[in-house]
Design goal:
Helix content is 63%, strand content 0%. The chain is mainly alpha-helical.
Length: 181
């Protein structure tokens, strides 16, 4: 699968914006015993021989139906970084963790289909905070999660999430100057 596939899929989801019935059906993709209700809407993208791919598309479709605010920048790590409160950012800078960082690390530790509820929790939190989601990148990353790409995806997410721990160069030089005085 490629980002082209993910882009086509998300464009298809965006074409349903405002169609309440279709969005309600897509939300069923997040409910295990109702997920098959999404098949008529998603069948042009589904590989019925690949249950993992079906779960990815149902999850992305369901999340989009709940929170259709899309962006073309960032990844899941940058999304989670935006969820951090100033207090939690300070905790991370001090080498501690808070609720969002624990949930993010829990997502990073996921194997296979364990990733879906962990991502779902944080994306629905983004809805609450009105933070846009890069659904194209998220779909592409989740499609690659069960492959050799997983470690690269985790590193990419981590790099974006822990940017909070980086001190801007201007602040570093000022604090170093103060310690040398």
């Amino acid at each position: 699968m490629s980002q082209t596939f993910a882009r086509g899929f998300v464009n298809y989801l965006q074409s349903m914006d405002g169609e309440r019935g279709k969005l309600a059906t897509l939300r069923k993709g997040l409910i295990d015993n109702q997920a098959q209700a999404t098949w008529p809407l998603l069948n042009r993208f589904l590989d019925f021989d690949n249950s993992y791919q079906i779960k990815v598309l149902q999850t992305i479709g369901g999340l989009f139906a709940h929170h259709p605010v899309n962006t073309n920048s960032g990844n899941f790590g940058s999304l989670c970084c935006q969820l951090l409160s100033p207090e939690e950012k300070q905790k991370i800078t001090d080498g501690e963790s808070g609720p969002i960082s624990r949930h993010f690390q829990y997502a990073l530790a996921a194997n296979g289909a364990e990733i879906f509820p962990r991502v779902r929790r944080l994306v629905l939190r983004a809805k609450k905070d009105e933070i846009p989601v890069n659904y194209i990148q998220l779909a592409d990353d989740l499609l690659g999660w069960q492959s050799y790409k997983k470690d690269r995806i985790k590193l990419s997410w981590g790099r974006e999430f822990w940017k909070v721990n980086l001190v801007p160069e201007d602040e570093k030089s000022e604090s170093e100057a103060e310690t040398h005085d």
